[in-house]
Amino acid sequence: MKKFFIQTFGCQMNVYDSERVAVMLKKAGWEYTEDPEEADLIIINTCSVREKPLLKVFSCTGRFLPLRKRKGVRIFVMGCVAQQLKEQVIEKAPYVDGVFGPGSEDQIPQAAEGDIFPYIATASESLLREEIFPESSRGAFFEPYSSCVTIMHGCNNFCSYCIVPFVRGREVSRTTAAVIDEVKVLVGNGVKDVTLLGQNVNSYRDPETGSDFAALLEQVASKTGIERLRFITSHPKDFGERLAMAFRDIPNLMPYLHLPAQSGNNRILGEMNRRYTVENYLEKMELARKYCPDIALSSDFIVGFPGETRAEFEDTMKLVDRVCYDSIFAFNYSVRPFTKASKMTDDVPEEEKFDRLNCLLDLQRSKIKEVRGRYLGRTIGVLVESESPRGGTLMGRSEHNLVTHIVNSEPGDIGKTVKVKITEILENTLRGEKIKDQ
Ligand code: SAH
Ligand code: SF4
Ligand code: F3S
């Protein structure tokens, strides 16, 4: 049987697309392998949000070149770099056999069997994928117990630094019915934890009924039998009371909110075209905590945006200090083509960007014990998913989305949610003991 291997970079959207491609290939008679040496088809799902992941694409495809020479494997590139560079992917890496932008991945099985190489398929618009990805193309493929479901494609926000609207197109929402059907399929396959995905889930609108994201959450939570529900990403400008209340009112909505601030300085937020102020942002955080006092908050930050002074960066430090996030993701600003910010001078030196990044991450590290200290001694539900990489214990995800190692779990716990008493707060994870006689 012919075998395929997929390597996925980038965000959950890409993980979701890789899963769909994997399911389609399996239906077309292909077998999945985790070992590229065994594969006849190698697919690289790419991200172009910063320059570094883009460069990775070419080092990665290059790594597979000897395999192509030796045994004629096909190398396909899909995802956001495919859409950004189109046929230029082939100019840069002539050994790539196929380029598939978001929305054209359904052509991969047919292209893999065909004889047109290089095969180039890119989308000009974000497509409504109901037609091109039949529901039957869905199943839990890589992770048996937790999965993502894209509820909308594209983005209309045009934050000045961001390439996503240019590679993923404009916002298009799927219908509530399609999302519910898909979550039901996943639940039927044993999935317990589903994350609804969109670049800005707050602007979700059912194309048939016009109902909003809070309504979608209620429907999915109550009509599919899913045990745990989450969502990413919510844009602070659109996060409001209705969605905050969902954390109180929907029992299976997990207490985790990713609300990316990007900066703690109002001038920089304006330059970024984020359309909120630090004061607005803090109000939203308070709103979330009002309805869910135990909520785990997380955020993304960009340091070294064009023109950002050290004092403006210090405002970001103040914000992180004040909010007390469970986790943050921070990135050095990276110039992206097509964006408004690419016309500004990238004037913060690289070493200064790294220094700001390290200061921010150090601050977060220094706060972790204090922030996560609230879990110590508490009993929390953990969905047990796998063995710890170093063996010995099993691990899973806590309600608050933290990896939790369970010292006394048994193999039969995999796939179940067990009650765990948290005994230790580690840098990136929690450790605890399963409560006996559950
Ligand atoms: N839609 C989401 C995030 C999409 S991209 C949102 O609005 O938050 C994920 C993260 O990458 C962003 O939150 C941002 O912090 C970072 N990012 C995007 N463009 C970037 C750039 N040009 N340089 C550095 N980081 C960037
Ligand atoms: Fe990019 Fe902004 Fe859209 Fe997020 S909301 S994907 S940061 S343009
Ligand atoms: Fe990257 Fe595309 Fe996601 S650019 S962050 S993989 S939408």
Task: Give a summary of the structure in a few sentences.
This protein has 438 residues and is of the alpha/beta class. The protein has helices at residues 12-27, 51-63, 65-71, 80-85, 88-92, 108-113, 164-168, 176-188, 213-223, 241-249, 266-271, 278-291, 310-323, 350-372, and strands at residues 3-8, 31-32, 41-46, 74-79, 98-100, 119-121, 146-150, 152-153, 172-173, 193-197, 228-232, 256-258, 296-303, 327-332, 379-387, 394-398, 403-406, 417-425, 430-434. The chain is globular and about 60 Å long.
Shape estimate: globular
Sheet/helix structural class: alpha/beta
The proportion of strand residues reads 15-25%
Number of domains: 3
Number of distinct beta strands: 19
- pLDDT < 50 runs, ≥5 residues: none
Task: Examine the secondary-structure arrangement and name the CATH architecture of the largest domain.
Answer: Alpha-Beta Horseshoe
CATH topology of the largest domain: pyruvate-formate lyase- activating enzyme
Separate helix tally: 14
Largest sheet strand order: 2-1-3-4-5-6
What is Rg? 22 Å
CATH superfamily of the largest domain: tm_1862 like domain
Query: Level of helix content?
Result: 25-40%
Largest sheet: 6 strands, parallel
Bound molecules: S-adenosyl-L-homocysteine, iron/sulfur cluster, FE3-S4 cluster
CA(first)-CA(last) distance = 44 Å
CATH class of the largest domain: Alpha Beta
Mean pLDDT: 93
